[in-house]
Amino acid sequence: MFRKSKVTEGTSAGQVGFKKKSRVPGVMITQYIETLPEGKTHPDFTRKPIALTIQEGKFAFFKAIVTGDPTPTVTWVRNNGDVSDTTRYQSKYDPNSNEHTFEMPNVQPDQADTYKCIAVNEFGQAFVAVVLNVIEVGFKKNKAPEQVPDKITPVLKRTSKIRPKSEQTERKDGEIDPKFWELLMSADKKDYESICREFGITDFRWMLKKLNEMKKEREEEQATFVKNLSNLKPINVNVDGTASFELDMDLLEPSSSIFIYKDGEMVPYTKELGEKMKHSLNQVGRKYIFSMRDLLPDDAGLYQLDVEGVTMFSTEFKVPMVDFLVKIQEVKAMEREDAVFECVLSNPFSKINWFGKNLPLEQGEKFDIEVSEDKLIHRLVIKDCMVVDKGIYSACAGIKSCNAFLIVEPDKSVGKGKKSERKTTRAGGSGVNLQQVAQEQQAKLEQQWEERKEIIKQAQEEAAAAPPPEAPKPKTPEPAAVNAGEAISSANQDAEAVGEPCITGGLSDTYALRGSPHELMVTMNIECEGAWFKDGEPLSSGGGITVFKEGTTHKIRIASCQDDDSGVYRFAPGELSTQGKVTVGDVPEFDPDDLHKFSKPVVVRVGQNAAFKMPFPPQEALVVSWFKDGSEIKDGGGVKIVREPNHSRLLFKDCLRTDAGEIKIQLKNPFGAIEATSRLIVLDRPGPPDGPMETVETTSTVIEIKWNPPKDDGGSAVTHYIIERQHARQSLWTKLGDVSADKTTFRDRNVTHGKKYNYRIFAENPEGMSDPLETTDSIMAGVLILSGPPGAPIIVSATKTCIHLTWTPPEDTRGVPIVGYLLEKMKKDTNQWVAINAVNEPIEDIKSAVKDITEGSEYQFRVSAINESGAGDPSPPSEMVCAKNPNMRPSFKDPLDFMVVRAGNSVRIKINYEAEPPPTITWLKEDEPISPWINVINTEGMSQLVIPSSKRSDSAVYTIVAKNSVGEASFDVEVRVTDEPKSPGPVEIQQTVHGKLLISWAPSPDQELDDRLYYVVSQCDSNNRMWKNVADRLFANSYTAINIGAGIEYRFRIFAKNDMGLSDPSHSPPWGVNNNRVPVAANGLNSSEVSFERPPSILVPLKVHTPPKGYQLFMTCAVRGCPTPNISWYLDDICINSDNHYYMTNSFGVCSLYILRVGVKDGGEYKVVAVNSFGQAECSTKLVVKE
């Protein structure tokens, strides 16, 4: 046995408490009383406060949610101190959220302690402990130094140079941001270049030398607390909307303190799973995972993990300013069809992350990831969808994400075990014009950019208009790299300051088309003279070149550019100069024959490959691009682009219908671009006719339907449409016919009024037949005709598990055959009717057994007739009926009235009964109470009497008595406990008349104990030496053997037999020719006449039999009379002597009736009538056949 622990903590004097277990770990509960009143509960926590590590000066708080009835009182205490100071400790309660809050504004180091939250009501108390750790920051002058024990390691000062903004000092010119070094020490080598580019570091050799020194120093500091540090993974956004970074770390001391910082500020976090704090640090083995939920733009920054003040890992979290203008939508795709998710971003983004079922997705054979040229539209194409591809798919851009379901429906038109064909259609999309949304957003971004440029330009003009500052004293400048533009700008500013000529618009490198005019121009701030040079030689007008001046603008115009005009042109106004290179060339060209050949369409079938090839002359700086329907084609997936110096090839693998369209190649160089256009035609069977299917007309004799041509004709024209029909609630489709492609209507004249039909349309072209367009709802021929109401349901019977109902059909069927009935029920005190069967599963009979009921509840029922149009008007409701068994007098169900058991075996009497209310059961033995060692097992509807080990003395008549308030019933069961019988006594033979022998024997010792014991006589003679039974079922101790021949030796043996079997035999002495001869008196000497004539009499009557159905039956009785009586058998007073169903024998007065298989019709009263000239005798019995 288990003992409940008793405690007295927290209880009043003399009161005993019982410890209880809370569902929340760490909560201790004490219950004051052992059994709570109904509806009352002791206090408990549904949310406990969590441990907190926080920097001093911050706002610390604990939250808890408490339950209990009556409502508990909540108090907060600390182990080593008082919490009564309301300026430092504040307890609050929010009735809306049921939260108890304990707040500590401006937390100080002396408040670090273990705190307890205690909830108490009159039935018990619950409490939980929580630890607050406070980290000291900086040095306090007014704080007295404390003595630190030798065993306690003093807190180390943080080694990282990243400090909070409040503690940062202004960096000197040329000083490098400390964040640069922290990022490098935790980054991979492949990321060094991008980090240096971000911080403007160009001296890589110096950087690497400095980094190695800092790494060595940092590793020495880390070795003080960490044994091993590896697998540093930078912070990333996860598919569930959280951000996390992780690392593997072996601490020398598991109790070492771990701190998280963001831009130098300590971040509070929790270590408990399932808590709802923003930051958490979870440990799995040697792996530490820092997670951050509910991401915001303010979460961007440098995150660092420190152990006892030493930085172990640094990573920067960048939050791009991007959002979803159009989110991905749910997609429903057929099996082997392509599915498309697409979205539009608010700002250009080169690549977003796609996830499928929480796994990252990459470009490959299964997935196509597409990005528009403006980088605003992003698409994910899932090719050849299968059922296993269904699930949730997500798109993540920065900290923003959206997700949607992919539902893949199996292709039911394909037989079981067969694979459906690859479909050429695409499912999904956003449902809006993404191109338009992207163009509007691009225009908005360009407008914003122009506004920013205008603001910058205005600021520059204001700065230029301001008076120049006083010239600073000469100072030796630091070496710095400046470009030419900066040098010219600086020179111009100096020239403007003194009013000298300066260049406001200089020359730049340009490209000129051969044979076309070209112009070079230089703009000065004032009118001045200058000289032009080409490749260092002075240049003047002539030879197709014109040099002239227009105010402050100096120009050169080349009338028709040739190769000789290429070179470096320079303009020098005094000491100033500006130069630019002019390159003369031609636009790329195609060979006319190649162009004509390329322009011919390429025609392929679905699944085949398509190739395009375009030769062109080799050129420098030539850019080759391929386009399909205006969108540039990227190399990857099922597309292969080959670029060679003199040609380019485009290959489509396993073409789909979506690959069809206009194919264009573009050759582009600095002088211009040229394009060649072709077309890819992919032939396939057409798409399904465009729906929805419309019902043009429906009458009692005709249904006319209409559809639209398919949106995709498969590349070749539709030749005709095939129409099929299906009866509603049937699975067989029947072809009605076909119509030409120019007709999109069909009239079905073979319809039955009131019946519903489904239709489907196939489009066919030379490549095959399309998928069908089906009606969404069944179409009825004519108007809806519903049946009238049936008769109100009648309650036939009601029990606690079943209510039997019947009703009459409706009087008015309105000319439409009834296919069944809809049965409804309504519970008492409700107004809602609940259907017991569905309309498509009608009850075909006018009766029903309702089993979906609750015992003791009251119900009403109503019924509606169902025809092809649906369920008609409901009938009036039935009377209210209660689901309970009716009161009834106890009755027994097919009890067994006789039982034979071998001595030593158990006796088990099972009696099934019916009674309401449940009766009281009593067992009697010979009308006396049963012995205590006899077991009685009572269950609902059955009672058992069990005797574990039976003895002969247990043979008796057992009576079961069932009594309730309605009446009483009893039943007797005879139990016979017996064993195999003992052998009969000695056998004697005596001859009384010639040819007959009287065999007699002493009775078996069991004859007095077993009234069902009888004898069997076997005979053997010297002629055949075989034993055979000559008499059976003898209840006497003698037998007369007849047909005894002279000169033959006879032997007899006697068996005792009962329900358990045969005994060992008792043998007679042999009887021969001269043995025991009976002397015969001479005629006339001592003779006297003896008469044996007598009326019939019954020696052994018929017994009662209760065989199971299908078993064989043997019924016997013994009759005596002289002369031999005539025997007749009767069943229910009808003679059955001539009925072949029964086999009857009469062997020397032993009359037997044998039935091979007993049936129910064989039950009744059986009677044997024996008649001779002196009178008659009869006996009868009953035969009960059990089901």
TrEMBL record:
Sequence ranges of Polar residues compositional bias: 432-445
Gene3D superfamilies per the UniProt record, alphabetical: Immunoglobulins
Domain Ig-like stretches: 43-133, 890-978, 1095-1184
GO cellular component: M band
Keyword field: Immunoglobulin domain, Repeat
InterPro entries linked to this entry: FN3_dom, FN3_sf, Ig-like_dom, Ig-like_dom_sf, Ig-like_fold, Ig_I-set, Ig_sub, Ig_sub2
Top-level taxon of origin: Eukaryota
One of the GO biological process terms: sarcomere organization
Biased composition (Basic and acidic residues): 447-460
Region (Disordered): 415-480
The Fibronectin type-III domain, residue ranges: 688-784, 789-886, 983-1076
Family: Belongs to the protein kinase superfamily. CAMK Ser/Thr protein kinase family.
Protein name in UniProt: Immunoglobulin-like and fibronectin type III domain-containing protein 1
Organism: Knipowitschia caucasica (Caucasian dwarf goby)
